[in-house]
Amino acid sequence: MSLVDSIRDHVREHRSGMVSDLLFALVWVTIVELFFRFVDGPQWAYYLFMLAGILAYFGFFWSLELARERQ
């Protein structure tokens, strides 16, 4: 199996997860960018908000998984 076939199989198997990850990242970065465009905050706070996106990502998908289990 070639590298291209491996990548194609991986993308085919995880397509919906990859799309939701990308959408979450784009929405998070857009929100932080817009917020700091209107609020002239310090640079360290900007980076802290960007890093908080990692926690927000895992928290969001963890709570989504819990909600699906409860149904």
From TrEMBL:
It comes from Halorientalis persicus. It comes from the Archaea. The keyword Membrane applies. InterPro entries: DUF8119 (IPR058432). The chain crosses the membrane at residues 21-38, 44-64. Residues 1-71 form the DUF8119 domain. The keyword Transmembrane applies. Keywords: Membrane, Transmembrane, Transmembrane helix. This is DUF8119 domain-containing protein.
